[in-house]
Amino acid sequence: MPIGDYELKPRWLLTLALGGAAALCVALGFWQLDRAEQKRQEAAQLTERSRLPAHTLSALEPSAEPLRYRRLSATGTFETEGQILIENRHYGGQNGYHVVTPLRIDGGDVRVLVNRGWIPADAQGRPGPAPVPGGVRTVTGEAHIPAPPAIALAGPGDVSTWGDRWPYLTLDLYRDRFGVPVQPAVILMDPGEDGGFARSWPQEMPKEGMHLGYAIQWFAFSAIAMLIWLRLSVRRRGSQGGVA
Fold this sequence. Notes:
Layout: E1 2-3, E2 6-8, H1 12-50, E3 55-56, E4 71-78, E5 84-91, E6 94-105, E7 111-120, E8 136-144, E9 165-166, H2 171-178, E10 186-189, H3 209-233, E11 234-236
Parallel strand pairs: 3-4, 5-9, 7-10
Antiparallel strand pairs: 1-2, 2-11, 4-6, 4-8, 5-6, 6-7, 8-10
């Protein structure tokens, strides 16, 4: 295709390579836009659910998803058996443990795990005392659905050897370890309630900005690939190489 003193002579291998790269970058850009939209929807859901009154737990909930971003409430008795400590949790610049205690809900055999807050570790990394309060009490707090870390050094097969100090918590691991029915969300005990330890739970608001930034980067990479293709495909008439 002549363009003045130049002509467009694309090479098939170059077109295949740079065209494929540009198409991949465009696809990744739209994927990031989809992720940004998901974050917007999650943020709207968080705002809506946070305004609802606390949901009272009694019978075993069928799914965790309706509890996400909700405030939860449960009445029952804390149990010493089944209390675990989650290692390597930090508070005020110090290393320590989160204390997770099962609350047996009144009227049945169902438990809900309650994160009662943080206790410090001593110089040898050992936890301080974490006494379990007695009597029937009502616990209120934010719902939390724990997930394993991206890289778990200790696999599920090691749970039986963890004792009461766990590197991380999932509800499936807890059910397998203790064999009791457990609600599909953990209660992060309100800072003002008695019976807990140091607590300052971060408010996690889904953010779309990061994904929008990534989308712009991928679209820019696609544009750069097409500019490189154009630069290498346009030649001066009579020239065997690209534009000088």
